[in-house]
Amino acid sequence: WYAVDRELLLGLPWKVQTTVRRERATRAALVRLPLLPGEAVITAGVRVEQAKGGDSKAREAVVHLPRGVREVRIESELPTTAELALQAPVGRPWTERWTLVCSPIWRCRHTGLTPMARQRADGSLAPRWQPWPGEKLSLRIDRPRGTSGQAMTVDRVDYTLSPGSRLLEGKLRLTLRASQGGARKVTLPADAELQTVRINNKERSLRATRTAKGQVVTVPVTPGKQTVELRWQQAWSRTPLERAPPVDIGGPAANVRVRVNVGQDRWLLWAFGPRWGPAVLFWSHLFVLVLLAVGLGRMRGLPLKTWHWLLLSLGFAQLPAPALVPVVAFFAAFAWRRDFWRARPAPRDATLFGLTQVGLVGVALVFLVALYASIHSNLLMDIDMQVEGMGSSNDRLIWYADRVESALPQPGVLSLPLLVWRVAMLLWSLWLVSALIKWLRWAWSCFADGGLWRSRATKAAAPTPSGAPAATIESAAGPIPAPPPEP
Predict the structure, then answer these.
(1) Strand, helix or coil for residue 474
(2) Parallel, antiparallel, or unpaired: how do β-strands 2-10 and 94-102 relate?
């Protein structure tokens, strides 16, 4: 008894793989397998004969199984037809199993039998039938018509710009897939000078053609996945407002990223472009500080006016907001010291007075450290404009567009030379030093109001005789007259 497996591989071309198996191989055997209509055996050593009796067009393959051989496989080809019929033979010593592997270029439909399984172990679609003798299976195969659409898809675009004082370096990288060969026209800016062209990391000798729209580069495209990289330079001069040069990739694309390297010698003020991009959060932080400065300007009894607080908030904008707390605490503490202890005579609460004086010294030290930190960050450290979004930073901005039709986005940047910020902060530092001298004089007057130190008397004065001059008790606040004797 044998098991016959027929696997129909409908691709280009159509093939049939037939496997004959047996459990016992103690002797040689011949098996005459009926062939499908039009089936042509291409395996060497297999004889094909006309079937005995019945249809004259029916043919059989004579399969020889030598002694000790349990399995023999033969391969055949089938002509492409619209219909294909299979029937399990009756009265033959084997059990058949049919498997259909239909290529995506064909559409296969079956009638007559229900598959025992529809998928293989690896998950691929391959219906399988195990017919009883005499059962039939009809297959209808046709080729779906192609639909209109583009033969080339751009999966990703990386557009990088690095502006300098005289030249701008541009880099364009396309990741695309094509179902057929062709060409892709990329239009660069009019004054661009093409440097290199790489296709799949291999440099190609291509030239740009000058047109009314710009420099057009025709890139050859082969079927399959590939990457195209173009580099160019163009004349450039730094201005406060800069926009990306126009670039057209000649068709729709997805996942577009535009990168602009602002440079470490520029002071970034603002950035605009696609909605998914960087955001400069410095101005919102400064706005909160300005509101705080306006509120502090309403405090009475301090040597600072509203414009003083505004200038202080501008200088502390590069530090976290809590860094301004020691400044506010310094003026508030010394003003409280002046008003609170002026109304309390000595030597009352001398211990609390001493602790207050020591605490004020600590507050003053923290205040001076905060001022030094602001000057150090503004003059020596890199400016932080608190740029967030798409992995952007102060000197590198990134925008993202999920889809473009042809022209790439042209984001813009508003910036100034970094020297402008340094000079402004130098002037701010000079103003701070001059203002600090006045503030320290005011703080010293508050600190020394009513005396620098107070202590209790260690001895009580002896009573004075009648008529003698009244004795006095010395204290830190000055001599205190003794009460007169009773009459």
Answers:
(1) coil
(2) parallel
Q: Which residue has the tokens 């470490």?
A: 264
- Three-state DSSP class for 364? helix
Q: Supply 288's token pair.
A: 């909160």
pLDDT at 3: 92
Q: Which three-class secondary structure state does DSSP give residue 153? A: strand
The answer to whether residues 57 and 96 touch, using CB atoms and an 8 Å cutoff, is no
CB neighbours of 354 closer than 8 A, spacing ≥ 6? 453, 454
Here the tokens at position 181 are 């060969």
Asked if 265 contacts 421 with a C-beta cutoff of 8 angstroms, the reply is no
Which residues does the chain have with pLDDT short of 70?
53-56, 341-349, 450-451, 454-487
CA torsion angle 261 263 268 274 (round to 10): 0
Q: Report the alpha-carbon distance of residue 223 to residue 261 in Å, rounded.
A: 34
Question: Is this structure's pTM higher than 0.70?
Answer: no
Interatomic CA distance for residues 187 and 164, integer angstroms: 22
309 token code pair: 């607080």
The separation between the first and the last C-alpha atoms of the chain, rounded to the nearest angstrom, is 148
- φ/ψ region of 263 (left if φ > 0, alpha if ψ in -120 to 50, else beta) reads left
- pLDDT > 70 in the chain, percent: 90
For 428, list phi and psi in degrees, rounded to 5: -65, -40
Give the Cβ contact number of residue 281 at 10 Å: 14
